[in-house]
Amino acid sequence: MQARRPRRTTVLAVGAALAALTASACTGNATDDPSDTGPAGQLTVLSLGPVATWDPQRISSPQDIAFAGRVFTRTLTAFPSGADAARQRAVEGDLATNAGSVDPSLKRWTFQLRDGVKWQDGSPVTCADVRYGVSRSFAEPFAAEGLNFPLAYLDIPRKPDGSSVYVGPFAKDTDGQAAFDKAVRCDGTTVTFLLSTPMADFNQVVALPVFAPVKQAQDRAADGTYAVFSNGPYQLKGVWSPSAGGTFERNPQWDNATDPIREAKPTTVDYVEGTESQTAVQQVINDAGVHRRAITLDSAPPAMQQHVLTDAALKARSVNPSAQFVDYLAPNVSKGVMRNPTVRTALALSTNREGYVNALGGASAASEAYSLIGPALPGHSDDDPVGAGPAGDAGRAKAALQESGLTLPVKIRVAYRSTPTADKAMAALVNGWESAGFKVSLQPLTKDYFAEISKPAQAARTDVFWANWAPAWPSASTVLPPLFDSRLNLSSSGTGRDFGGFTDPAVNAEITRIGTVSDPAASAEAWSNLDASLAERGVFVALAQRKALYVAGSAVTGLSANEALGGFVDLAAVGVE
Question: Which domains does the chain have, with CATH numbers?
Answer without folding.
Answer: 45-274 (3.40.190.10), 324-547 (3.10.105.10)
